[in-house]
Design goal:
The strands form 4 sheets. Strands 8, 9, 12, 13, 14, 15, 16 and 17 form an 8-stranded antiparallel sheet that branches. The radius of gyration is 19 Å and the shape is globular. It has 315 residues and is of the alpha+beta class.
């Protein structure tokens, strides 16, 4: 579920919601909760086409939302997204992000008032390095999303040029499906497909340079776009360049030919697939609660990524 979809679906996760004066809860995704205005003063200020996006401390892995939460995760990722929106210089969906700007005090620091966008049904992914699902496809066919790559690449190889490897959005609990550029053209038309690819690669290229200057490698990232119905402009939505939507590696320890330690949910995934957890990810059984040390180390990685990228101390 995207945080800025203009037609908010019924259902979503069954989560505890907050009583926020002036706002009505309408949807809960894996990690974010959405509220729409219930007070005319809000619509007079921001217009009817706005939504309050509240980032929770929930964490998901292997298409499951875990019972355990990561303290401060919502604030860390919201503040990091806001920092990136400032760096990128592209049209984005944020209207306000402070209490003075109109965000309820109860969710200060982890919420944004955003434009509702008509979202494209495409996850726009840019890869500058070969790893993950792209590596698996490359080993089978020498391609990633049907894009041919040179022979001899290994896990962590840097690509000569970043590539656009989109996926089709899936419902909560389902896997996104890798698709080709030609599939994107069929979904949204040739002109929009070309613009989505161009914007995605522009964002990746700029962010990769910024991260590299701070000692971090941006291996790949997922961004999402929609149309601002008031202006007709393709607009960047959702979160951007966080450890939940991107793969960040430490440049000092980077070594092609092996899996790279990353600033994300690595500790969570590693523990869930370990013998200690006793959980079978192929089963229908929900994952067990995380041990305190896994929660603490995961939080630490999120904080470290925030501080290294922004140069700010997370308070």
């Amino acid at each position: 579920m995207n945080a800025t979809e203009s037609s908010l679906p019924a259902g979503g996760l069954d989560t505890e919601t907050l009583d926020l004066p002036g706002w009505t809860h309408v949807y809960s995704g894996k990690v974010r909760d959405l509220y729409i205005p219930a007070d005319s003063s809000i619509t007079e200020r921001f217009g009817h086409e706005c939504v309050l996006v509240v980032a929770s401390d929930r964490i998901s892995a292997f298409d499951h939302v875990l019972a355990s939460e990561i303290p401060d995760k919502g604030r860390i990722l919201t503040q990091l997204s806001l920092w990136w929106f400032e760096q990128l210089g592209v049209e984005h969906h944020v209207l306000a992000s402070t209490v003075d700007g109109g965000v309820p005090a109860a969710v200060e620091g982890r919420a944004m008032i955003c434009k509702k966008l008509e979202m494209f049904p495409v996850e726009c992914i840019a890869r500058g390095y070969l790893t993950g699902s792209g590596l698996a496809e490359y080993k089978e066919s020498g391609t990633v999303c049907s894009i041919p790559l040179p022979p001899g690449l290994v896990d962590g190889s840097r690509l000569a040029d970043a590539i656009f490897t989109p996926s089709a959005k899936a419902e909560v609990g389902e896997h996104d499906e890798n698709i080709t550029y030609e599939d994107v053209v069929e979904l949204v038309g040739e002109d929009i497909a070309g613009r989505l690819r161009e914007l995605t690669l522009e964002i990746y290229t700029k962010a990769e340079e910024i991260a590299r200057d701070r000692g971090i490698i941006l291996a790949d990232t997922k961004v999402e776009f929609g149309i601002d119905t008031a202006t007709g402009v393709i607009t960047l939505g959702d979160e951007v360049l966080t450890p939940d939507s991107s793969r960040f590696w430490d440049a000092a320890t980077y070594k092609p030919g092996q899996a790279q330690p990353s600033y994300d949910k690595q500790y969570v995934r590693d523990w869930l697939t370990s013998a200690e957890s006793g959980w079978d990810k192929a089963s229908d059984t929900p994952p067990p609660a995380l041990p305190a040390d896994v929660v603490a180390r995961t939080r630490s990685r999120y904080v470290e990524a925030f501080e290294l990228l922004t140069g700010r101390t997370f308070a």
